[in-house]
Design brief:
- There is one protein chain.
- This protein has about 180 residues and is of the alpha/beta class.
- It has a single domain, classed as Rossmann fold, CATH 3.40.50.150.
- The chain is built from 5 helices and 7 strands, in the order αβαβαβαβαβββ.
- Strand 4, helix 5 and strand 5 form a beta-alpha-beta unit.
- The N and C termini lie far apart (about 40 Å).
């Protein structure tokens, strides 16, 4: 698992042991960043269920201003910190060891890009998508993007105030991008 491009291009990231974490495949990662290539520079990123931190680190490498990584696993928390050190990107990052639901409920930070990739069978994707997009719940800036990775056979409802940008399919995996509408 390597950083694709940018300041940390080619840097090999540490991985988590075991099967508890399902890392985003290189093919899916390349597709996501191809779709987002003009939506990263200068942005604030939230990587929920961050695992190794590869998605947020890729954003930082490509010029995102700041990234927050959240994972409840202690080993993931440690690997993210090590990966940020390996890529020399830790000065633009915050790593939180905690529950994603608690974080999105309590944070006062706002983001331009949110990655949601919880364990598929947990039901957390729909729950967090609902929380993050609830009216009056403003952690995503106007015109911000939510990137939701999910099984290809599961369709996600478009939240009110958002529009479906596109769903990309990669075999059994799909990635759906939602864009928050502006405040016109």
């Amino acid at each position: 698992m390597r950083v694709i491009t940018g300041a940390a291009r080619g840097c090999r990231l540490l991985e988590l042991e075991g099967l508890e974490t399902r890392p985003t495949t290189d093919r899916v990662k390349e597709g996501v960043f191809s779709a987002l290539q003009f939506d990263i520079e200068g942005r604030r990123v939230l990587d929920l269920f961050a695992g190794t931190g590869q998605m947020g680190i890729e954003c930082l490498s490509r010029g995102a201003d700041f990234a927050v990584f959240v994972d409840q696993r202690k080993d993931a928390f440690e690997v993210i910190k090590k990966n940020l050190a390996l890529t020399n990107l830790r000065d633009r990052a915050q790593v939180i060891h905690g529950d994603a639901r608690d974080f999105v409920t309590r944070t006062s930070q706002r983001f331009d890009l949110i990655f949601l990739d919880p364990p598929y069978a947990s039901g957390l994707l729909e729950e967090l998508l609902e929380r993050v997009t609830a009216p009056g719940f403003d952690i995503l800036n106007p015109y911000g993007i939510i990137v939701a990775e999910h099984p290809a056979d599961r369709l996600l409802a478009v939240p009110a105030g958002y529009r479906l940008r596109k769903t990309y399919r990669y075999g059994k995996i799909a990635v759906t991008l939602f864009r928050r509408e502006g405040n016109e």
